[in-house]
Amino acid sequence: MKTEIHVSGMRCSGCEMLVSEALEEMEGVQKASASHQTGVVEVEYDESKADLESIKKVIEGQGFRVTA
């Protein structure tokens, strides 16, 4: 499954790396790519091992807000 999540609060490439690395440590997430310029995090994950709500919680746990 591939999805885009809109996130506010990312201001720099360090923010992008923080979000991407935290997501890629999750079981079931194959790839995560965050962009502070667009405010979007693209996530590829296995639906049998991870779900959208868990992914959003990880993003929020890094100090950012999921907006959509």
Q: Categorize the overall geometry.
A: globular
Number of helical regions: 2
**Class computed from helices, strands and strand pairing:** alpha+beta
Strand order of the largest sheet: 2-3-1-4
Q: Tell me, rounded to a whole number, the average pLDDT.
A: 97
Poorly predicted parts: none
Distance between the termini: 17 Å
Order of helix and strand elements from N to C terminus: EHEEHE
Q: Which band does the percent of strand residues land in?
A: 25-35%
* SS elements, strand count: 4
Summarize the amount of helix as a percent range: 25-40%
Rg result: 11 Å
Major beta sheet, specifics? 4 strands, antiparallel
Question: Nutshell version of this structure?
Answer:
The chain is 32% helix and 32% strand. The chain has 68 residues and is α+β, with helices and mostly antiparallel strands.
Secondary structure blueprint with pairings:
Layout: E1 2-8, H1 13-24, E2 29-35, E3 40-45, H2 52-61, E4 65-66
Antiparallel strand pairs: 1-3, 1-4, 2-3
Descriptive tags:
2 helices, 68 residues
Textual characterization of the structure:
The structure is a single chain. Helices cover 32% and strands 32% of the residues. The radius of gyration is 11 Å and the shape is globular. The chain is an alpha+beta fold. β2 and β3 (40-45) form a beta hairpin. The mean pLDDT is 97.
